[in-house]
UniProtKB/TrEMBL annotation:
GO terms for biological process: pentose catabolic process. Residues 10-184 form the Class II aldolase/adducin N-terminal domain. Keywords: Lyase, Metal-binding. The lineage of its organism: Bacteria, Pseudomonadati, Pseudomonadota, Alphaproteobacteria, Hyphomicrobiales. GO terms for molecular function: aldehyde-lyase activity; metal ion binding. One of its GO terms (cellular component) is cytosol. Gene3D superfamilies: Class II aldolase/adducin N-terminal domain (3.40.225.10). Transmembrane segments: none annotated. PANTHER family: 3-OXO-TETRONATE 4-PHOSPHATE DECARBOXYLASE-RELATED, FUCULOSE PHOSPHATE ALDOLASE. It comes from Hoeflea prorocentri. This is Class II aldolase/adducin family protein. It comes from the Bacteria.
Amino acid sequence: MSDGERQKREAIVEHCKALNRTGLNQGTSGNISIRHEEGMLISPTSRPYDSLMPEDVVFVDKAGNPTGHFAPSSEWRFHRDILLHRDEVNAVVHAHPTYCTTLAIMGKSIPPIHYMLAVFGGSTIRCAPYEIYGSPELSELAVKALEDRKACLLAHHGMIAVGSSIEQAFWLAGELEALAKQYHGCLQLGEPPLLSEQQIQDVIAKISEYGLTSVKSPENKGLDA
């Protein structure tokens, strides 16, 4: 195993544990992948994250053939298909955080309630229609919902965040859950006022000026500094 591969495996283990530690996920339901060679490395199915080891991470090639001690996550298909369709994406985070999942159950996309929507590439976070987990149909809908975006919701299921690095994808997952919580709170009071498409595009342009189009960690400055 090369040093580069080991680092990717360790990063998957670290961020799987962080999903549960930060409350973005519960149990073993989430999964994480990182692009690697002619395929991807992905967390295994049904393995407790607190005892997960780098050697437990599974390699899956572009044809969907796994190599490893365990079976890959049952959601390997949409991880693979996202990476195949998005050359700029190198990591995918899927989880079932409470507020994202609540909105997803209600079939609600997240509208432009806050300027931080801009870090996801547009004015909305789409909610893909429901299909059973692990299916080609779900994968197709997820890829479509992620078009020109860095995150989406999955109806009656959870969320997906993607990034140029695992650090970026994980950070965006946390930002998405924060936005979902804010939108949920707004809905308790009524329909919130929304930013316009132009206002969101202005923020996207400003983010680009600060070099945050490839945000890698929450330490990046410029969004509100």
